[in-house]
Batch of 4 targets.
Target 1
Amino acid sequence: MDAQPPKFADLRVRLVSAIVLGGVALLMIWLGGVWAAALIAAMAAAMAWEWRAITHCRGAHPGAGGIAAAGACGTAVLTAEVLGPVLAPTMLAAGVAGLAAADLMQGRRTSAVWTIAGLTIIGGAAIALLALRNTEPHGFISALWVVIVVAGADTGGYFAGRLIGGPKLWPSVSPKKTWAGLFGGIALAAAGGGLFSWATTGTYYYEVCTVSAAAAILAQAGDLAESAVKRHFGVKDAGSLFPGHGGALDRFDGLMAATIVAAVVTFWRGKTVFIW
């Protein structure tokens, strides 16, 4: 019988990678302006490239289509910073439509659907994250709250899943994820998000905990959705951009989902999630 790897065999690499990359990301988000826009645009471009590679090339080099997909999402984010958020969705839609049209001209109808669905979500979430960062007076902490909630969901899920184990959440899609990991991630994200809000702006702890829990649920749903897409196309990892974490999609799939929650709450209410 083969020896089972230690439960936390990948912890050191994941931790070092998260600290280094997280520190750089935190600095750029704190600086705001073109720095935050450049970071988010690069993140969106990397995810779009990987999405094209998975859905069109089954993990192989996506070529010109990958460059076009990355350019469409990255340019849309930069447009939001330079020309304002109103034009950004139009820029994104034009890029996505061009790529989908190219797929249709080649007789690849299913590929066109994957293009529209994936790049719209990636680009839209990236634009929403930049819009949250630029929302005053709490733009920085709003963006940071999203990151903390996603990190809490990921960390809580990682440790609860390995320490408690138990029944698998969806073994046919993600063999390692457990129900214990799901609830552990939700609990840590809710507590961490609520405490962060209470410590920074003094808003109501329980209300923000509720929103944090909802964001954590969708963050983990986003992770499962990405796993389902990779399994459908027979791809193990979206990429190898981040040591211990895989590709940009592997790292930021949950962030996209949580950002959408925060953006909907913020812009629907006309107030950030920290003000009740």
Target 2
Amino acid sequence: MLAVLKLVAQDFSEQIAVPLSSPGKQGVLEVGLVKGDIVVTAYEGDEVVIKATSGYSTDKNDDCASCDDDHDRDQNRPVPDGMKRISSNPIELSASEKNNMVEIETNSWSTRINLDIKVPSNFDLNVSTVNGRVETSGINGVHEISSVNGPIEMTNVGGSILSNTVNGDIIVTFTTLNSKQPMSFVTLNGDVDITFPNSTKAIAKMRTDRGEIFTDFDMKIDRSKPEVKTDGDEYKVSLNSWVYGTINGGGPEYTFKSMQGDIIIRRK
């Protein structure tokens, strides 16, 4: 199935729905933006509902002012004598579905597009944006989430997550876990704040260069030991700043890393 949306003139927001081939079964959402926020929320339905809005970030704390330079230039152009401006903010968006995989494409490289997407609760997410935030709620699956200039916030999530951003916090609250999947939460400039169920079993691999590490789990801590390598006549010993913590006897490895921020691992 293919749904295509093109907005022109004064249409700044519109909504389309994409039916799923196999309602009730696990789905996959793939979407990547250059400029724009992505909000994905679980709901009780058998379609993927996509609302596209052009314009500024919906995050009041977003300081990516340069993301909207094109919009500012358009609004500041002089109006010819005797003329009036008709606002134009075109959005181009296509959404295709095959075997419960929904892929969304936009022209977010040329205009900022914020997406508000509703999916059934059992969905895998492969979501990324360059200049914007990612926010999800109530979704169970295998998730790969990334941003460059923006935070990542996931609430009431189940399954597993691989997440990374450059400028922004990563905040996640889990309800359930995939007990065998490794996970990672990595940011350059921001805090990593993750809440797990009390029964979580894992090996926490933690590192922050200019922050601190906090937890209310009863972790067994093991600081990095010297790593020794031999290659023929060469003998090499190296140290790094990783700290390892065993949670409830251990399990898959979860990586927590920030260069300039704190790491907080909470017990629900």
Target 3
Amino acid sequence: MLDDGSGQAAVSCDFAPNNGPLSLELKNGAYYWSLEGSFIADVTVIAFEDELGSNSCFNLCQSDTECVASLAKSRQLPTASIVYDCSIFYHSDTVQPYEVLCGNSLVGCGAPDGALACP
């Protein structure tokens, strides 16, 4: 889940009239999440249960006054357990947009509540 830090989920998409710093863009036949004017300032490893049970990555962003967005990406460890890498983003006017591949279809990149999601 990519959260803009507002607690309202990521409701900004690259389709009018919702253009904003967090968007979903179509490039070369694939959809990408794009976060403009931001860079990764810190990455924290979070246990699977802590992220799913209490939104730890979102809470880290909320507690950091410089944070403009957070991204929790799951990965499987060699021990077969799953953890999340929580990236905390800060604002900058001098960086290229941060982009992450979502998928080849718009279906699955946007959840019914307006949040940007990826299966």
Target 4
Amino acid sequence: MGTTAINQMSAEHRHIETVIKALGAAVSALDESRRLNADELRKVVEFLRVYADRRHHQREEGLFFPLLVKLGVPPHGCPIGGLNNDHEKGRGLVSALERQIVPYERQSAEASAALQQTLKDIIKLYQHHLWMEDAMVFPMAEKLVSGEDNRELVAKFAELDRAIGLETVERLEQFAQRLGSRPGSLVIG
């Protein structure tokens, strides 16, 4: 059948997971009173906002989850309602992270602790969220989604990518790959 919509979303998970692992290294650095690179944190915000949310979550919320509902999966509760709730929580945490960067750069009192807690919350949310989809939702969807449904999803995913910008998607995937090869790059020194 070629690439499937579920395979595409799973591949996106691996990029998101790579960035989340790098945030774990950043939390460890903060534990050791090491400084983080604020410009790299801004790139993390962009990655989470554009790649994870605008690309991946919009594929789910606008296309994939509605298809699952049409195929009989309940729209509220577990899993779809909970996953949509996670998306909302994630948006709030990414906004908090963005707001905390400047105070952290200025080394204001409490900024490091607040940043560290937000990073921990982002890590916890995404680790659980990705696990839920990988272990529960995708295997279930593999049984429900027809070949025709898949072709339609893949085409609509491509439209969404064009709307975001193929260069932007590629740049953000390269950012994730760079963090994967150098997870300490969020740390200064």
